[in-house]
Amino acid sequence: xxxxxxxxxxxxxxxxxxxxxxxxxxxxxxxxxxxxxxxxxxxxxxxxxxxxxxxxxxxxxxxxxxxxxxxxxxxxxxxxxxxxxxxxxxxxxxxxxxxxxxxxxxxxxxxxxxxxxxxxxxxxxxxxxxxxxxxxxxxxxxxxxxxxxxxxxxxxxxxxxxxxxxxxxxxxxxxxxxxxxxxxxxxxxxxxxxxxxxxxxxxxxxxxxxxxxxxxxxxxxxxxxxxxxxxxxxxxxxxxxxxxxxxxxxxxxxxxxxxxxxxxxxxxxxxxxxxxxxxxxxxxxxxxxxxxxxxxxxxxxxxxxxxxxxxxxxxxxxxxxxxxxxxxxxxxxxxxxxxxxxxxxxxxxxxxxxxxxxxxxxxxxxxxxxxxxxxxxxxxxxxxxxxxxxxxxxxxxxxxxxxxxxxx
Length: 408
Prior knowledge:
By secondary structure, the protein is mainly alpha-helical. It is 66% helix and 6% strand. It has 19 helices and six strands. It has helices at residues 2-11, 14-23, 26-32, 38-45, 50-57, 62-69, 74-83, 91-94, 108-118, 143-148, 172-182, 202-220, 234-261, 263-268, 270-299, 308-338, 341-371, 376-402, 404-407; strands spanning 100-103, 128-131, 137-141, 166-167, 186-190, 196-201. The strands form two sheets. It has a three-stranded mixed β-sheet. It is elongated, with a radius of gyration of 29 Å. The model is unreliable at 1-7 (pLDDT under 50).
């Protein structure tokens, strides 16, 4: 398969090669370029936009990166070398250096002629930025202004000074939030002195949103995104997964201890052992629903710790209604199974209480972790699962124990 991929890649059109490189993961890239020389790799990837070129180069060692860049046009190689110095999860690591910027003192005719000469990629030539002699960003103009205004108009006279910018150190999650907030097609990236460094386009931000969502879901499962590649070392997988699995095992022991305490009740009323997994599982499902919503809300900055009471009240209402409905359902099923109304009542009450408690824990836990500055996505998954099991077992068995004479 690898050999076929290498042959096919060499025979593809430039556009299709770029599409492949844009979406290929690290493992696929390493397989395709396994026996390629730096010169051959540079020939294939050299025409990529700078941000996409950086994404590909980050899969190679520093030495191979340098050898590839030696075979790419010097001006582009120099810019890409600078981009590689930024963290891949920062705005600087996401940006492209292909953008249109002109000195504020030139006229529209000059700008149009330069654009014709450059023939820029239309997917990136979305806005025209206006700078001073030291490349400080002063404003932006739209293409429509170039058409509707007289050709001798100085561009500083038609620029819009209110420009939303992105700091080169900004995290990619916050970059994605800005694009969601303003809905721009592209945004300029600037340094601490407001000098323009590059741009980030909406499609790059959209990809970042998807990456963040995937990363958060993996963290909830106790898996790090760096562990996804089949080429990732075993030591990395163990380092990322084992601590949370060890913690989860300790919590499971606590949950099992609760069952052991009430083993007499289980022996006396075997039906309770059948109902317990259903009750605890439904609590876990409800808890995860609230958990997922809060984690994504925190990630996208749609909610914050200040919203605690508003979220708590909403979840309380949802928990009450859901608990009542599912409690009645399981009560009826338990009654029809054993024709014991007390078994139905215990099952229904346990379901109601567990769903309510699990839902509250699901929204409180990530907010609490955020408050103590721990990434909620990392710690909540294993912890929530075991807490809902523990509460489900405890509530069911404690209620059954109190009414054990009625259940026999």
